[in-house]
Amino acid sequence: MANPEYQTLILDLGDVLFTWSAETRTSIPPRLLKDLMNGQTWFEYERGRISQDECYERVGREFSVDPSAVAEALKQARESLRPNEELLALVRELKAQYHGQLRVFALSNISLPDYEYVIKLPTDWSIFDKVFASAVLGERKPDLAAYEKVLAETGVDPATTVFVDDKIENVEAARSLGIHGIVFDKQEGVFQALRKIFGDPVQQIKEEVSGEKQV
Questions:
Q1: Which residues does residue 183 pair with via DSSP β-bridges, in sequence order?
Q2: How many angstroms separate the Cα of 205 from the Cα of each of 2, 19, 30, 195, 198?
Q3: How many helices (H) and strands (E) does the chain have?
Q4: Exposed, middle or buried: residue 202 (CB in 10 Å: 0-12, 13-18, 19+)?
Q5: Which residues, at least 6 apart from 142, have a Cβ–Cβ distance to it below 8 Å?
């Protein structure tokens, strides 16, 4: 029997459902690659307001690097994406406990080209009712409009929704709308929190009692 208080789970993709590496075989070091992905030009790209070519040209000028090097570094970073199989397994477990009634969505700050690449990766996309990409929404986290568009389209109640993201500012924005937010920092702790929120309370009591006996 699942906890009826919460009925919806919204997950981030990058650094939550997928891991990736900024280490590339290019002239762009990891720190620089992350910096260029954390500026206003990149944010506009993730909102779908500028094209890939325009984004690469602009960040090239801003960071004094060749746009072709930017393109290659980002291509290699994209190819490093690996699904978090443990998290996928946990979500399947929780959905099973809810007998398929747990709704699961993804909300990701991601450009349209990157989204089109990621959504084709061979992983278990069936766990999601829908994946929301910032480039399609036209808004990105932590802007409240991004969350509000997802809430409006899905019709879910913020009070019965849990949001998981690796960035504290994104989690705080969700919390400001009444959503229960969890920062994805240490995976073990996050998994424990999700099991406590969505899991089988009877099984949890059994595990707690078992743990006490072993102490």
A1: 165
A2: 13, 33, 45, 12, 14
A3: 11, 7
A4: exposed
A5: 167, 169, 170, 172, 173
- 1-37: burial string, b at 16+ Cβ within 10 Å, e else: ebbeebbbbbbbbbebbbeeebebebebeeebbebbb
Sort strands 180-183 and 161-165 into parallel, antiparallel or unpaired. parallel
What residues form DSSP beta bridges with 83?
Answer: 18
Q: What is the pTM of this model?
A: 0.89
Q: Which residues pair with 106 in a beta bridge?
A: 11, 131
Nearby residues of 67 by Cβ (< 8 Å), 6 or more positions away = 56, 57, 59, 60
Cα–Cα distance for residue pair 59/38, rounded to 1 Å: 10
**154: which 2 tokens?**
């899905």
Tokens of 58: 């602009």
Task: Extract the tokens encoding 151.
Answer: 């809430």
Average pLDDT per block of 10 residues along the chain, 215 residues long: 76 95 91 95 98 97 96 94 95 90 96 96 94 98 98 97 98 98 95 89 46 50
In the Cβ-directed half-sphere of 134, how many Cα atoms lie within 13 Å?
A: 25
Contacts of 85 (CB under 8 A, 6+ apart): none
